[in-house]
Amino acid sequence: MKASSYRHLLAALIGAACLPALAADLAEGTVISAANLDQLKNQTFEGHTIGSMLTEKMEARIRTGGWKLTLARSKKIPLDPRWVKASKANEGKTRINDAACKVDGWKAGAPFPSIDMKDPEAAKKVIWNVGIGALLGDVSSVPNFTQLLIDGKTGIHAELVAEFTRLNMKGRLSGNSSTLGEDDESGRQLLFFKAPSEVKGIGTYSMMYDSNKVPDVWAYVPAVRRTRRLSGGAWMDPVGSSDQLQDDLEGFNARPCWYPDYKLLGKRWVLAPANSKLDVWQQKASSPADKYPTLDRGAPYWNLNDNFEPREVYMVEVTTPSQHPYSKKVLYVETEYPRVHYVEAYNRKGEFWKFMEIHSYVNTKDGDIRTVAADVIDVQRNHATISLIDVSTWRTNFDAKPSDVSLNRLESAGR
Question: Of 92, 316, 131, whose CA–CA distance to 210 is shortest?
Answer without folding.
Answer: 131
